[in-house]
Fold each of these.
Amino acid sequence: MIEIDPIATEVIGSALSSIVEEMGEALIKASHSTNIKERRDCSTALFDLDGNTLCQAEHIPVHLGSFLGLIAHIRKRHNQADIRPGDVFCGNDAYEGGGTHLPDIVLAEPIFVDGAMTAWAVNLAHHADFADRGHAHIYQEGLRIPPIRLYKAGVLQTDVQELILLNCQVPKERLSDFRAQMAANRLGVQRFQALCGKYGRATILAAGAALLDYAERKMRAGIAAIPDGVYRFADRYDCPEIDGEMDLSCEITVRGDAMHLHFEAPPQVRAGLNMTMTALLSTVYYAIKMVVDPTILPNAGLARPLTVSAPEGSIVNCVHPAAVNGRLSLCQRIVDLILGALAEAVPDRVIAACNGACFSITFAGHQPADNRLWVYLETIGGGSGARFNKDGLDGVHVHMTNTSNLPVEALELEYPLTLMRYELVDGSGGAGQYRGGMAIRRVYRANHDCRVRVDGARLLSPPWGLFGGLPGGRAGIAVHGGAQAFVRGNGALRAGETIEVVTGGSGGYGPPAARAPAAITRDIAEGAIDAAVARAVYGPAIGS
Amino acid sequence: MAWRIGVDSGGTFTDVCLFDDATGRVAVWKVSSTPADPSEGIARGVAEGLAEVGAAAADVGYFGHGTTVATNALIQHRGVKTGLITTDGFRDLLEIGRQKRPDLYDMQADKPPTLVSRDLRLEVAERLRHDGSVEIPLDEAAVRRAVRRLREAGVEAVAICFLYGFVRSDHEQTAARILAEEFPAAFASISHAVAPEFREFERLSTTVVNAYLGPIMRRYIGRLAERLTALGLTATPHLTQSNGGVIGFEQAARLPVRTVLSGPSTGVVGAQAIGRAVGFADLIAFDMGGTSTDVALLAGGACRLTGEAVVHGYPIKAPMLDIHTVGAGGGSIAFVDNGGLLKVGPRSAGADPGPVCYAKGNDEATVTDANVVLGTLNPAFLLGGRMPVRHDLAVAAIDRLAAVVGMERMATASGILSVVTANMARAIRVISVQRGHDPRDYTLMAFGGAGPLHAARLARELEIRRILVPRTPGILCAMGLLLTDLRADFAVTRLAVLAPAALDGLRAAFATLDTMAAEWFAAEGIAPADRAIARTVDMRYAGQNYELPIAVPDGPIDAATLPVLAERFAEAHRRLYGFVAEEDPVQLVTFRVEASGAVPKATFAAQPDAGPDAAGALIGTRAVWLAETGGFVSCPVYDRDRLRSGNCFAGPAIVEQMDATTVVPPGWTARVEPFLNLLLEVA
């Protein structure tokens, strides 16, 4: 291995970031499905041959580890000596492909430099398909694809592609998105080869290794700054798919510059809420990076000081054949658990509970003009927890996700839906010295009959506050205009009927008595809190 | 009417560039800016500049101005109290935006403040559908109540934005009429007039920013016009917009949102004009200052226009030159982070306290300090002797950093430049490779105080083989103002599939836009011979969400136009994304007309060739540490002011002038071309 100094490492790191960013731009701009082009539910990365992420342009943190296991699964299934330039592997499986749920389809292309396989260009796109299916086990959730060749030495394997497309409800979109994914990887391969041409293959590989070490050092430095100890937190989980609530807890042991996280959760269930270990790892990496140092590079080095355990076969470390499609809401709650536990150790580096879900709503129906199947998925943000020094953010995506909404003017053009309201929910931000962020209300009207599924959480228990801050508002789902009530998040709307989704708010931070009077006055004027409620929470002198 | 004046008013200095049409003489006058009221500094600068060249205000035939007033008001949130009237159910859209948080991992990050507080965002019943049909008619009484409430609340400006206002404007027009009746003093900003384009949040944001800045710009322009009149100036003053063109003060006061990038866009125009004079059409403009670097790509002499950008956190839909900014400048601070890597910027020591070598209290090494240590910058003084330099302090600062990274002093200083160069190269890759252009096909035009100093390293990083350093790199923006055409852009969104049935819509859209352009030409008093029109349409495959701007052929629009558009679109798509989806329908989205009115511009005269011998400009030698040799090499130092057309010399060499230093590395040659620009090429 050649020696590399801190300056060359920084310069090459900058070039690698440029490459993955450019791959991401190409993927988003050339794609067709709203979920990628508008909501940016995709990520691009470069991996080394051992499967370590060298550099990633993730648009949402759940992707931080979403292809962690991919290269290992490719190697398990294929002899490296048989891999040729122009081979492209395609996979999505949560158990045999290193993924976290089936709609995230990954394309991986090996990068050859001077005839030697040197690295991988990889990208993941969330294909909004596999809709209106069951979630009793993974076989109901869509087509399971292990990492197999979609292209062999540059030649499209049309039979493989046809098999995949036949299993999709909107094959035309899938085809276009695959093309965009191919274009992104092609760019990655060319740019990486050019970079090796400039600095030499060995220098690039040395810089890659140095960047992993660098992320590890930063992670260790951050953990070392947290007081040693064992920190615990417990919470309850609910969602439309299950009756009642489930107990979740975590125990975090900080010792020196390393950290161990252990989670306890009930056995996996016949519902789509389960998380694979890969999803749990992504969640932990996100939460600890956020608490310790947001600037740590998103590469594999950051994982080295962390160990994670959870009972095998539980909802947070599920095994085949558990269904996993709706894992994200549970991931969100794992972040809350970690922050709740670390609040005692580093109160100024955590925030109160966020909305605790990734509310998603999926519509599926037939286009009135030509009877073509249409599927539309979107996710809805909510409150972000109050911080130690300021209010939480209103109406945003939190933690593991950060996808954009689709403009109303695009939504209504493409699908037979009308958006009636899109607003912040009064009173949903938990009171406190610093107020929690407000939830979102979104009301849709179906203009033609369609089926609808809503995933979410925090319908029963409200998002908690910290250090005396009060809880935020709970989530809710309601139908109007004569529609039948939904069962386990599933239902149908006839033309003219509406569905209203209210997401969770978020918790406050610090006792309400400490809130600045001017801030309370502003909350009342802006309708963030009702005047009568404000008097009850903050004292009778308020607003008088 | 011989003199033409360009004034670039920045945060620190106001540059006044005077050009005598009769003699071709160029004079530059620099005064300190007056941030509280920039018009004061401008008036003083103009008065002093005119006195310096011995001209009277009445001799000025043209006055062009680039300003940061709108940008600064937006950055510092010093706009006016603003109200909003919008569609029932959507008042919080302004705050929710795209529902994304500002940073994935930093929980302390905040969204930019919402420019209209929630109690001043009022909803009225009305709803249009995407095809322009009315689902709920406008409740006019509710509009009237809303306007009264906003008036009583003391707002100065009112934004009106309804869903689908870009498809059908009558609801917005009715609301605007009621606003004018009830509250004539308010600055009115109406979405269909400000940004009649698809995507409600970005249109709303643009309309609100326009309202928020409106009264500020109106007052500023009023004050400046008054001062200029008081000086005796009779020429119509003009302001640069973000699209690089200038408009009259009246227009600028109505659409201030179009001037938020006024400052950097004039630099690009300056670069474009010089490129044209020298005969280089493909340029990368590289403007490196004290805290930031602006880069832009000019292909075929034109800079790409973007219809939308996020400016200081606020999405703005307005025609803007595609300029990319990165926090890297001479004052950028170098530091070692807790992971042990050397980082440079975006934190900057600025002009005050400035680099360590200024001895004004900063002790963190900057890019300028690295240059002083390397000898690429004069180790004794800068700014032609006006700024003394403490070489010893710069050395000490670099040594402190070197100790932390565990490297030699000179390798550390050189490393700082490598890191800042890598940051700037990333910015250039965004505007070149990410847009389908290979930087190796371009000439790097280096300007700004620090551009010529770093151009060679940057060129090497990007494998660019030619650099052009303008005669006066420090005042290219003010110069650009003397070279700019009048320009206005008009756009309208009308979604249609590219098929024979779209022809009528295409004709109608351009007819509307042509009428708007004709009215503007008349209002600006542009003679028919000086008028020019360029038409483009933003196109995409049905189902995509990002459009590509495609030029519409000149002449009448007929059946033959459609296949040309299809072909041009396919070509652009293939170049950018590497594929064409032949079976997919293609959509026309937004139609645009760029109207320009030629103004008589400053023209520079070519200088007679004085032969290759540059010895007359040689003022000494100095030891410069070169990355190529890994050690100090004695380099000739030339005085830029004494270099004559045709002079040639080989690197390594240093060229000094009052406001910039140019490095000519080994393996490169420098030549002074007839307009006295310095051309650096790989030998």
Amino acid sequence: MKGLLFKDIYMAFRHCGALLIIALVFIGISMADTENRFFSTFPAVFAGIVPLSVLGYDEQSKWNEYADGLPCSRAQMVSVKYILGLLSFIPFFLLSLAGTAAMAAIAQTTLDLAKLCADGALLLAVNLFFPTLTLPFFFRFGVNKGRIAYYVAIGLLAAGIAASGIFTYAPDAIGPVEIPFYVSYILLGIAALLFALSWLLSVCFYRKREF
Amino acid sequence: MTANAIEIKNLTKRRGGFAIENLSLTLPKGCIMGLVGENGAGKTTLIRLILGALQKDGGSIAVLGKESGGKDFRAVKENIGVVPDEIGLPDSMNAKLVGSVMRRIYKQWDGALYANYLQEMSLPAEQPFKDYSRGMKMKLGIAVALSHRPQLLILDEATNGLDPVARDEAIGRFAEFTRNEDHAVLISSHIVGDLEKICDYIAFMHKGRLLLCEEKDVLLETYGLLHCAAQTLADLPEGAVIGKRESPYSVEALVRKDLLPAGMPVSNASLEDIFVFMAKGNGGAETAPFEEDFFA
């Protein structure tokens, strides 16, 4: 398992570095346009894309078939992608955190720790949503067919994030109507539960998959 | 401790229109078995079944004494070295990084041995895998398969893509590997000449069936090539002719030497002759155009 993770982390750094740069641009835009949650939230989606990209490279190089000859179980091969999904959230979250801190410094305000945690929880929920929805399809049907799920997930997330603006601000735009912090934690709880179910489902699918 | 590295009994596997039916095969320890057959004969499917990568529909497969795909099979794989027909290592990795990955995968990984293989095989450790030639990729696959000191090597077309010198070296390495009587090799290849050099046993697959599994020396002793007139061939006892190739002037046939009348001149048949004639005799030409130089 350690070897599989080592390989995937290397692949993520090697091939997904550009996503960090795009995330940086998004966070930069979100600093200029603080009312738009899309640019501050969407980098979390990039983190969710990382395991899918690595899986795509695996399939391209036929690593999956090669790994069947190694002392690794199919469950481990699946699990490592879910773990990578969690790990890849860290750099994107740190980037987002740095953006928030920079904004606070520019506005000369103090950081609201409670809000920061709630935002982090929301970002993590968004991050989990993507692999949760797509990985079972990828493990069941392969990367090519799994891409349909990928596009659906992108569409749903983009729509969801855009729609979240309705709940963040009052319709008359007089001022922000904050959603209670606990909502973020509830969403994270739901996302974590679905993530775990998706993990189990992927293991079931991949155990039966024949190359 | 079992005396066999691989024991397959009544194996059945159906995939789409293809099926392996009731296949039984035993590879004793200390031996090299060559698996031959045309493309699509089921060699790779059989190898993936042995590795537990495919689920069988019936029968049993024991590898180093444990049921393939069973609970303990991951531990068994610590003792298996596999070289598939395509080495599926990530393109962006180099041999050094591959070593770092494998060190974390195999408990018995021997980094010094791996470095030694890289040097012996003239493989640049820092060059990305994507820049390797097919032969170099195969060599790296072989180095990886040997560097955790396995007991069983499973090689699927592992000598394909290697130049004659490298092929000879690889074959020498596999032969050396089985000097330890606990070791065994299962090697599938189209290059029958390579198999003839090193194999103790030959298993011949055709359309998912095992046409024969026999000691190489017995095969070479049993079969011969007969050049004669068509009428002479027709007069031979039933079962003596395995396959034939006719021309307007003569007939060349693979025959069982023990069923021929005494004194009939028969030349030695190579393994390649045996398989080409057997494949044709079993309808190989009906399904796909059979290339004469297929086993060359």
